[in-house]
Write a structure and sequence with these properties.
Oligomer: single chain
Shape: globular
CATH architecture of one domain: 3-Layer(aba) Sandwich
Radius of gyration: 28 Å
Mean pLDDT: 86
Distance between the termini: 77 Å
CATH superfamily of one domain: P-loop containing nucleotide triphosphate hydrolases
Structural class: alpha/beta
CATH topology of one domain: Rossmann fold
CATH class of one domain: Alpha Beta
Strand content: 5-15%
C-alpha cells in the first residue's frame, strides 16, 4: 500500500472532548473535583493553569470553552500585545461576554496584564491563562487576585501510556495503520513527559515506517529520532531552553557553547531574525559600555540577516556570536536603568529643579524657569558643577561603572569631574 503522510498535528487531532479522554490531573477534573464541578455547573470563573509543558493546559482550556457555550478567543503572549487584547475585549463587549485563553501569560508585561483588568473585573471576558512559571512572581497581583490558580501536575507514565493507546485506537488517521507499541521507553525519554511531544514522536515513527504494519520498539525509535528529528520545538519549552542556554553562553564568555546552541537552533529551523534580535538585546544588556561596538555589530548583524536570509546568514550569525561571546561584559547600564525606574516608583513625580526647566514664555522666565542654568560648554572641560537631580534625591548614585577598561575610564572621568560627589 502506498505510504501517505499524516495531516494536522496529532496533538490537535487528539484534543479531549469528554472528561474520560483526559490523562492525568484527576485532582482537578476527577469525579466531584473542583474544576469538573465548576465546568459542569456552567459557571466558569477566570483562572490560571500553572504546570509543566505538555501537561494539558491548552487542552483543558479548549475543553472548558467547548462546554461553556460562550465565544472563545485564543491569544499567545509570545506574539500578542495590548492591541490584540483590546480587540478581543471590544468583540466581547459587542457579544456580551466571551472566554479569552492566553497561552504563556507570564510573558505578558505589566501594561499588557493591566489591559485585562477592567474586562475581567466587569465579567466581559472570562480569562483562562496558561503558564509554566510561578504566577505569584510572573502575574501582577491585581490580575492574580481576580483569578483562581490551578496547579497541573507532570504526567505519569500511565498517563502517557493512556494517551498513546487512545491515539492509535481512536485517531482516524493513525487507525489506518496497524500500530503495535512493543516498547515505549525511548519514546518516553524523547518526549520528556510532554504529551504534545509524545504524540509528535509517535507520528514521526509512523511516517518513517516502511509499511502500514508499524512495530514501535526502542531501537526503531532511537534510529528514527537520530536520523529525522532535531529535538527542538519552536513553540514549546525546548525553544526557550535552547535560546536561554544560547544567551547564557554568550553572557558567560563561552563562544564554543554559544556556537553549539546556535547550531541546535539552525537544526531546529529557528527563525534567524529571532536569533539576531536576542543577540541585539544581549549586546546592550550584558556587554553595554564595556564594548559599545558590540551593539553596532549586533545591529548590523540583524540588518544583514534581514536582507540575506537563510541559509547564507548562518555565517553572519556565527561571526557575531563569536564576537559577542568573546567581548568583555558589563550590565552596568541595565542595572542603572533598573535602579532609576525603582527610584521613580518610590518617589513619584518629583519637582524638576527650576534651573533645568524650559522657559519659552515671559511668565515662565519671571517665575525663575531656567534661571542660573550653567551651559556646560562655557566651562573648562565642558563641565559645569551643577546639581541636576530634584532636591529630594540629590546625591543619589544610579550608575556604577563596571570593572572593565572602558568603564574604568568612564569612572575615572566622572570622578575627576564630580570629585567626591559619587562614590566611585
Amino acid at each position: 500500500m502506498e505510504k501517505t503522510a499524516l495531516t494536522t498535528m496529532p496533538a490537535e487531532r487528539m484534543r479531549p472532548h469528554e472528561w474520560d479522554d483526559f490523562a492525568g490531573q484527576q485532582h482537578l477534573i476527577g469525579e466531584s473535583m473542583v474544576l469538573r464541578n465548576m465546568v459542569d455547573s456552567g459557571k466558569v470563573a477566570s483562572m490560571i493553569f500553572w504546570g509543566p509543558p505538555g501537561s494539558g493546559k491548552t487542552s483543558l482550556a479548549r475543553f472548558i470553552a467547548e462546554k461553556a457555550t460562550l465565544p472563545f478567543y485564543s491569544l499567545s503572549a509570545i506574539d500578542s500585545g495590548v492591541k490584540e487584547v483590546r480587540a478581543v475585549i471590544e468583540k466581547a463587549n459587542e457579544q456580551g461576554s466571551a472566554i479569552l485563553f492566553i497561552d504563556e501569560i507570564h510573558r505578558f508585561n505589566k501594561s499588557q496584564q493591566d489591559a485585562l483588568l477592567g474586562a475581567v473585573e466587569r465579567g466581559t471576558i472570562t480569562l483562562i491563562g496558561a503558564t509554566t512559571e510561578n504566577p505569584s512572581f510572573e502575574v501582577i497581583a491585581a490580575l492574580l487576585s481576580r483569578c483562581q490558580v490551578y496547579v497541573l501536575k507532570s504526567l505519569e507514565k500511565e498517563d502517557l501510556d493512556k494517551i498513546l493507546i487512545r491515539a492509535i485506537t481512536e485517531d482516524e488517521t493513525l487507525k489506518q495503520k496497524k500500530i503495535r507499541l512493543d516498547e515505549t521507553a525511548a519514546m518516553m525519554k524523547y518526549s520528556g513527559g510532554d504529551a504534545r511531544k509524545l504524540l509528535n514522536v509517535l507520528e514521526l515513527l509512523v511516517n518513517a515506517a516502511e509499511s502500514d504494519d508499524v512495530a514501535i520498539t526502542n531501537s526503531f525509535t532511537e534510529k528514527v529520532i537520530q536520523q529525522k528529528m532535531a529535538l527542538y520545538d519552536k513553540s514549546g519549552e525546548q525553544h526557550y531552553d535552547i535560546i536561554s542556554a544560547f544567551i547564557k553562553s554568550m553572557r558567560g564568555s563561552d563562544p564554543n557553547a554559544a556556537l553549539y546552541y546556535l547550531a541546535r537552533m539552525f537544526a531546529g529551523g529557528e527563525d534567524p531574525k529571532f536569533i539576531a534580535r536576542r543577540m541585539l538585546i544581549l549586546a546592550s544588556e550584558d556587554i553595554g559600555n564595556a564594548n559599545p561596538n558590540a551593539l553596532v555589530l549586533a545591529t548590523s548583524c540583524f540588518q544583514a540577516v534581514t536582507m540575506i536570509g537563510y541559509p547564507e546568514c548562518k555565517l553572519i550569525l556565527s561571526q557575531t556570536v563569536i564576537y559577542l561571546a568573546s567581548s568583555p561584559k558589563s550590565n552596568a547600564a541595565t542595572t542603572a536603568i533598573g535602579k532609576a525606574e525603582q527610584l521613580v516608583r518610590e518617589t513619584g513625580d518629583l519637582s524638576i529643579p527650576l534651573n533645568l526647566r524650559n522657559a519659552p514664555t515671559r511668565l515662565m522666565k519671571s517665575l525663575g524657569y531656567g534661571k542660573a542654568y550653567q551651559y556646560a560648554h562655557s566651562y573648562d572641560d565642558n563641565f559645569a558643577n551643577m546639581e541636576m537631580l530634584p532636591d529630594k534625591i540629590i546625591g543619589t548614585t544610579l550608575f556604577e561603572p563596571g570593572n572593565n577598561p572602558r568603564e574604568t575610564e568612564m569612572r575615572n572621568h566622572l570622578r575627576k569631574l564630580w570629585k567626591e560627589k559619587y562614590g566611585y
